[in-house]
Amino acid sequence: MHQLIYISSAALNVTSTDIDSILAISRLNNARDDLTGLLIYDGRRFLQALEGPGTAVDKAYERIKLDTRHRASVKLSLREVWSRQFGSWEMASQKVDLIADDDSLGVLVAKMVAQVPDPNTRALFSEFAKIKRKAA
């Protein structure tokens, strides 16, 4: 089983409706393709983990790179995992740009990844929240 984590920048014209559409389509595709993961959107950037069969992860990432609602996609991690880090989440998500309190962002992300077994994966998502706080 593969796990891919990438970061990308949102296109300038991305709306909340676009994000909802991304999530709805992702959940359908991921259920069909036996993928699980987590997507965090901070109002400017996406951080996403995808995991599942290698071919399915590769195909999903190719679709993602073609999506014009974001740009500058960079793989942060691609590795083999023995078990799913994100359980049965077809695509857990949080639009963290809607959170006014920066400390709440860190708490929310920490709660979302608390059950993820790999400390490096947890740290990556937690650092994403810290970068958002520092950039604000």
Q: What does the largest sheet look like?
A: 5 strands, mixed
Are there runs of 5+ residues with pLDDT below 50, and where?
A: none
Number of helices: 4
Order of helices and strands: EHEEHEEHH
Shape: globular
How would you sum up this structure, described in words?
- There is one protein chain.
- The protein has helices at residues 16-33, 54-66, 102-113, 119-135; strands spanning 2-10, 36-41, 45-52, 70-80, 92-95.
- By secondary structure, it is α+β, with helices and mostly antiparallel strands.
- It has a single domain (2-99), classed as Alpha-Beta Plaits (2-Layer Sandwich), CATH 3.30.70.100.
- It has a five-stranded mixed sheet with strand order 4-1-3-2-5, covered by helices on one side.
- Helix 3 (102-113) runs antiparallel to helix 4 (119-135).
Could you give a short description of this structure?
Helix content is 44%, strand content 28%. With 136 residues, the protein is of the alpha+beta class.
